[in-house]
Amino acid sequence: MGPGNDTPISEFLLLGFSEEPELQPLIFGLFLSMYLITVLGNLLIILAVSSDSHLHTPMYFFLSNLSLVDICFTSTTVPKMLVNIQTQSKVITYEGCITQMYFFILFAVLDIFLLTLMAYDRFVAICQPLHYTVIMNPRFCGLLVLVSWVTIILYALLQSSIALRLSFCTYLEIPHFFCELIQMVQLACSDTFLNNMVMYFGVGLMGGGPLVGIIYSYSKIVSSIKGIPTAQGKYKAFSTCASHLSVVTLFYGTGLGVYLSSAATQSSHSSAIASVMYAVVTPMLNPFIYSLRNKDINRALKRFVEMAGIKGPIVLGTKKCP
């Protein structure tokens, strides 16, 4: 436990999904596979965007940032869970728990902000196409991402600092696969009124605010698409938003379900399973969703693989030279 508490707490126990020994290899293999797919898929998106000059546009700039954040987001929770399963230990130190909670909040909210920036990018591209290159210039896009990082770093610090004032009794088992803020608050035996107020206010501000922005952007986009005279033009305009809309629906749908279920009931195993959807499954699916039927990404990935295949033999060939 942190400073100011009566009894120092050095560690917690992460119970995970199941305590059945025969299920541990299955859980380990499943999450290891999802983690490797997430890292590889998002890394390929980053490499494809950075290696193809045709993809140096605001939309793909935000997408590459989203892929980087998704890698970090998943890496905050899954590796620790895999290590615990492999070592047959459920222990996480108090400092490790607070650190994990901080980075989870940081990358989760960054995901939300980047999805909001991508919605704004589509809004400008469809509703104000003649001014798109002027408004969404590289400097402005970089500034938007920088402001998002700074804002969310401060927000995650606030939430983590408030969590340090919590005191815990003898029950130190977290029925989850990582240290989530809600689980920490529910586990505390001290007064949690301030923590709950800050936590739910933060969720409303940092989660609800961007959602309102996304809904507003898409309401304007739909209005603009309705004004397009041809069906082919409408389809082309909407197709540029379909992938983003799918990811937003998946992320917000599962995330909102977790927080509503946690507020309505004290049962945490169901929320732990739901958390897998937005903390693991969504980052894994993002590369597939954005590359599906996206000719630009597919072309860039094919070119990158071809370039890697050409450079490989050349490097091997040069090593044979005396």
Q: Please estimate the helix content.
A: over 70%
- With helices defined by DSSP (H or I, 4 residues minimum), what is the helix count? 11
Biggest sheet features: 3 strands, mixed
Specify Rg, calculated over alpha carbons: 22 Å
Shape: globular
Order of helices and strands: EHHHEHHHEHHHHH
Strand content: under 5%
Q: Order the strands across the largest sheet as they lie in space.
A: 2-1-3
The low-confidence runs, each spanning 5 or more residues with pLDDT under 50, are 1-6
> Kindly, what is the distance between the CA atoms of the first and last residues, rounded to a whole number of angstroms?
62 Å
Structural class: mainly alpha
Mean pLDDT: 85
Keywords summarizing the entry:
single chain; 322 residues; mainly alpha; three-stranded mixed β-sheet; 11 helices; 3% strand; disordered N terminus
Secondary-structure topology with pairs:
Layout: E1 11-14, H1 24-51, H2 58-75, H3 78-87, E2 91-93, H4 94-127, H5 132-135, H6 138-163, E3 173-174, H7 181-187, H8 193-226, H9 231-264, H10 269-291, H11 295-320
Parallel strand pairs: 1-3
Antiparallel strand pairs: 1-2
Overview of the molecule:
The protein has 322 residues and is mostly helical. A three-stranded mixed β-sheet has the order 2-1-3. The termini are far apart. The N terminus is likely disordered.
Question: Briefly, what is this?
Answer:
The protein has 322 residues and is mainly alpha-helical.
